[in-house]
Amino acid sequence: MTILLALAAGTVLGYLFERGDFCFHSTLRGLVRLPRQLNLVRAYLMTLLIAIPLVQGMIALGWIAPWVAPWAWQANLVGGLIFGAGMVIAATCITGIFYKLGHGMLGTLVGLATWSLGDLLTWRGPLNPLRTALNQNPVVTGGEPTTILNVLGSSLGLGLLVLLLAAAAVFLWRSPRPRQGDYWSWLPLGLSVGLFTSLAWLLARAGGANYTFGTSRVPTMLYETLSGATDPGNLWIPVALIALLPGSFIAARRAGTFWARGESSGRYTQLAAGGLLMGIGAGISGGCNLGHSLVGVPLLSLGSITTTLAMLLGVFLTDRAAGLLRPLPRLNQSSSSATTSG
After folding, report:
1. Residue 105's beta-bridge partner residues?
2. Do residues 204 and 237 touch, judged by C-beta distance below 8 A?
3. How far apart are CA 88 and CA 271, in angstroms?
4. d(Cα 150, Cα 156) in Å, to the nearest integer?
5. Confidence (pTM)
6. Cβ proximity of 304 and 66 under 8 Å
7. Distance (Å, rounded) from C-alpha 99 to C-alpha 132?
8. Which residues contact 208 (CB under 8 A, 6 or more apart)?
9. How many CA atoms lie within 13 A of 244 on its CB side?
10. What's 328's DSSP letter?
11. Could you report the per-residue pLDDT of 23-33, keeping only the tens digit for each?
């Protein structure tokens, strides 16, 4: 039952990601580029606008009892910064690697391999002591993982939450609603992802899992299972992650966006380096854009919120560094001649 439910959940999520081209690299980089590219930012805000009240409501009603990411702020900051840098270098995120592979971008296999390597290096290799040190002594509140509600108190926390959600709703209400092209615009994308990621909590609970989606430690867990080092335990998260591939493939075939192709040698290098950094960053912070930003933020986990903000900072700094390293455009010969003769 667990495997069937996880397959269904991952397939649907992969379908939605592909139909909206919902890459978190593009989401965050759209905030720092000029001019701003806010379509995916709006989709993410719509997702949170729906998922936060639904998820918090299910928790209050006792329908779900999710695991909440700890607030190990050193690990959240360092891992998030590394992950953000990796996204810019690879020009994609972890979930982007999966759904883009499903729509025919075969070069992402390189990023998938180095992401797995980064995960193994962080959980079982030479980076494990660093990960352990940064994750020591997470901040707890009342013996529980720290969230906005328990650190501020229910009244103040709920008040702040209502204000933030109201501000997001006003921003979205005033936002343009572009026509749908090959990919969904922000409104249907945000609505569908927000509703489904909330529903997925009920599916995960039925499958015996206390978390819905994530990528961190999945390669390490698969390695340990195949080598016989540990019992695999609940397979919900790895099965749901792998199921993103058929979901995105089905979506791409139905929409006519499937295109099998390779990449240039330079692009393979970018995917390899960026994938490695994302595997390391997710390992240190205990999650990626999927586990923290789409699943952990609706739980109001300060660990997930801190990691997401650190990702944004990592994207900003790496984007600006890339701009400084980019060679200046050279004057053409006629312009040079005109300047000399003048």
Report:
1. 261
2. no
3. 10
4. 10
5. 0.93
6. no
7. 31
8. 2, 234, 236
9. 24
10. P
11. 999 999 999 98
